[in-house]
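User: Here's a structure from my thesis project, written as structure tokens. My advisor, Dr. K., wants to see whether a designed sequence matches the one we expressed. Can you design one independently, without my sequence as a hint?
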């Protein structure tokens, strides 16, 4: 891996991506009785240059018809009862994927049959049930202040990125990253306001930087590193050291200054063996219903710029229940609920860089290099049975594998190859799965290789 591709930086780049995406986003609530699946006709050209009719599924939104993304189609069929013994969701997905007008029409009729049956359903308070439709336009539809421009919305070509329950309270990626920035700048107040400086508990997240982020329509994965807390596994007697991050050197490299004045560069290892490690906080989120926001603890290895997530050592922001609104909940209560969610996330990020947890995790990771592995290829095949990993990743792990300087094959070397493969992907879910696998090896050791 080329370490010059590793980016240690503030969240500016991710901020801009999210701002660009947000400029195209709009939410709307539609009563279930007013929602209908719609066939959207189109055409393509075959190899002989002849026009062929094709089609895709759309949904009525109150702002015209929006094409259904795969995620939105899944949400629609799940919330209409179409995903049942009579009609399976994967069958409807296949019909839509065929793009043949007759197949798409069949899917349209099935979904509308179930929508009609659910149209008069109400909540316990008697209010008709609605869907929260999260839509994306092909072009920006907001002004410079982030307000929807009605004229642009009226003519926009829309795509539904999610169909959710009207009780679901999404945590937008942009607002979540704003909270992370405030914590990293030591300017987050737990009443939801921004302060000038920290005046309460120690904030070990102050000055944190991002070393990895992946973003898709359905999920976000951000890894933050505290660049001032270093652990040298070759000299554990030094404990957690305070170092100075010197930033990028202009040539794509990064460096740190040790307490004794020595310089550490990205890709370095301590003299005499060992590894330089930094603590990591990983923040994951799905604003389209794929899961609640979560904060977990991990490690960053300087030699390979690998990240691993050690779930058992983490402080998690348990906010899943908070993301379900009560029936008839007022806007004031909803806003307070959002403030609480962001406060819990901020608290988790601040606490996840605990020096004691960091040192203990480094010592546990170091033990992996005392665990011999007889068959490296077989080890990777076993690891790829973990959730989110695929068989083809085993080959990539084998290509990334390098035994330590002694020439012995150890579980530590296997673990390094697993987390190294995460650099090959931009998909947040795949990166997250590989980071989790790296952490699982630290926590479970050889048990991971004995998966059925």
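Assistant: Designed independently from the structure alone:
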């Amino acid at each position: 891996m080329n370490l010059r591709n590793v980016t240690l930086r503030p969240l500016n780049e991710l901020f801009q991506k999210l701002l660009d995406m947000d400029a195209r986003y709009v939410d709307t609530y539609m009563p279930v009785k007013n929602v209908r699946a719609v066939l959207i006709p189109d055409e393509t050209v075959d190899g002989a240059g002849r026009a062929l009719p094709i089609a895709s599924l759309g949904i009525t939104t109150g702002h015209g018809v929006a094409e259904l993304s795969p995620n939105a189609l899944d949400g629609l069929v799940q919330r209409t009862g179409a995903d049942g013994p009579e009609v399976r969701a994967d069958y409807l997905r296949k019909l839509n994927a065929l793009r043949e007008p007759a197949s798409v029409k069949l899917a349209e009729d099935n979904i509308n049959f179930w929508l009609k049956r659910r149209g008069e359903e109400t909540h316990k308070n008697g209010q008709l049930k609605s869907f929260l439709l999260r839509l994306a336009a092909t072009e920006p539809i907001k002004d410079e202040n982030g307000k929807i421009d009605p004229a642009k919305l009226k003519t926009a070509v829309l795509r539904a990125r999610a169909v959710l329950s009207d009780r679901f309270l999404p945590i937008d990626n942009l607002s979540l990253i704003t909270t992370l920035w405030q914590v990293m700048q030591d300017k987050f107040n737990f009443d939801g306001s921004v302060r000038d400086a920290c005046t309460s508990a120690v904030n070990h997240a102050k000055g944190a930087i991002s070393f990895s982020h992946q973003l898709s329509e359905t999920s976000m994965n951000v890894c933050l590193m505290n660049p001032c807390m270093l652990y040298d596994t070759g000299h554990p007697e030094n404990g957690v050291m305070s170092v100075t991050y010197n930033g990028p050197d202009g040539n794509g490299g990064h460096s740190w200054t040790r307490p004794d004045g020595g310089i550490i560069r990205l890709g370095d290892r301590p003299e005499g063996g060992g590894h330089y490690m930094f603590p990591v906080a990983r923040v994951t989120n799905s604003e389209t219903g794929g899961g609640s926001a979560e904060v977990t603890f991990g490690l960053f290895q300087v030699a390979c710029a690998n990240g691993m997530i050690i779930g058992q050592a983490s402080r998690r922001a348990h906010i899943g229940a908070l993301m379900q609104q009560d029936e008839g909940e007022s806007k004031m209560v909803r806003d307070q609920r959002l403030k609480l969610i962001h406060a819990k996330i901020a608290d988790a990020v601040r606490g996840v860089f605990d020096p004691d947890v960091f040192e203990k995790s480094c010592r546990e990771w170091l033990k992996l290099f005392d665990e011999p592995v007889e068959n490296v290829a077989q080890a990777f095949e076993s690891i790829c049975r973990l959730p989110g990993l695929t068989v083809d990743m085993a080959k990539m792990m084998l290509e990334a594998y390098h035994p330590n300087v002694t020439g012995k094959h150890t579980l530590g070397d296997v673990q390094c190859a697993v987390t190294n493969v995460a650099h090959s992907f931009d998909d947040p879910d795949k990166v997250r799965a590989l980071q989790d696998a790296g952490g699982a090896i630290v926590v479970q050791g050889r048990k991971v290789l004995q998966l059925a």
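When you compare it with your expressed construct, this may help: The CA atoms of residues 158 and 386 lie 37 Å apart.
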